[in-house]
Amino acid sequence: MEIQKVDIYGIRLPLKEPFIISYDTFDHMPIIVTRLETDEGIVGWGESLPDPHVTGETWESTYQVIRNELAPLVLGENPFSIDYIHKKMNERIYAAPSAKAAIDIALYDLMGKITGQPLYQLLGGKAHPELVTPQVISMKSPEAMAKDGAAFVKAGYRNIKIKVGSGGGPSLDINRIRAVREAISEETKLRVDANQGWDLFTAITVINETKDCQVEWYEQPVIAHDLKSIAEIRRTTHAKIMVDESVHNSQDLLNVIEHRAADLLNIKLMKAGGIYPALALASIAEAAGMSCQIGSMVESAIGTLAGAHLSIAKTIIKSNEMIGPKMFTKDVGEVVYHGDVLKLPDKPGLGVDVDEYFIKENQIFQCSLSI
């Protein structure tokens, strides 16, 4: 059993509306899809969604890294040699996590298909009965965000996350948080994500002034590397703090733990380098008593289902943001949601039926490597 062919496609997925966070506005999501094929004709699908603000990778650079550096490394390899393949990738190129994720996810899809098992079974079986997804509200005026929040709660969502951190002082973000809290039911959980958009003063001010808004946690309040400020925010306020951009790899997480900088960890496959290194993060976090979330870079059905399988298989992973497919007008495959619950397929591997015709019709660039 060996991998004999790698196909790489660069496509753009259109969003239903612009996605606005503290550091950028997205009108579409540029993704890279990988297709690995074995000598027995079994196909595994992977995805990369790079973010230059987070991983330091661009769409174009990631395509080149996969094409020229990573894809050649997997040709001739057994798909189950996941540790060895990651070792080869890490020795070939430093970081580049979303590029490595595109290979890693496809390998796990292959492993599931070869064994005839849905991926979550290979990751430990179901640790949770279902996957409840939130709805995420991008940055708008307080009134517009409140309107969105009320509509989502009416549609049955039990968890609302809002994006803040636009700059200009704390008052606007305070108003956003208050407006959404007042628009949704008391039973609805509210989460706030600044995406590094605050400084220390603003973070403490906003958190203290929204103490009565029952925010479940505040995510990544200041710039990723400033663990001293994140630790001070955690120490001097009532709030639970989640880190996201601060943690890409195991060493980053050990630094957060050493600084006592966070209560919760947001793991993203695109930051970690795929499922295999994400498992290590979850284990370290569990040892430190830190609950985890599997986050999203607004991936397609491929990346979303990869995160979903991981989310349901680990007890320490308490929440997820597997919401990308809800945000696209057209996707590479289908993810089924019943209200706010993601229905994980029981088909082998990721369980996604990839629309190859759509990918080929919409590819911006493509290449194939084979032996």
- The helix content is 25-40%
Shape: globular
Main sheet characteristics = 8 strands, parallel
- Whole-number radius of gyration? 20 Å
> What fold name goes in the CATH topology slot of the largest domain?
TIM Barrel
What is the rounded distance between the termini?
A: 14 Å
What series of H and E elements makes up the topology? EEEHHHHEEHEHEHEHEHEHHEHEEEHE
Label the CATH architecture of the largest domain: Alpha-Beta Barrel
Mean pLDDT: 97
Note the total helix count: 13
Order of neighbouring strands in the sheet with most strands: 5-6-7-8-9-10-11-12
In percent terms, what proportion of residues is strand? 15-25%
Query: Which residues sit in consecutive blocks of at least 5 with pLDDT less than 50?
Result: none
Query: How many individual domains?
Result: 2
The SS-based structural class is: alpha/beta
CATH superfamily of the largest domain: Enolase-like C-terminal domain
Write down how many β-strands occur, each being a DSSP E stretch of 2 or more residues: 15
